[in-house]
Amino acid sequence: MNTYSKKVSASSTQGASGGHSPSDHMESLVKGHFISWAASDASNPPNQPQDLQHRTATNYYEEVLEDSKVMNNYLEQIGTYIAQTVYGYTDGPYFMDSLPDGYKLYRHHSQPENAKKPRSKG
Question: What does pTM read for this prediction?
Answer without folding.
Answer: 0.63
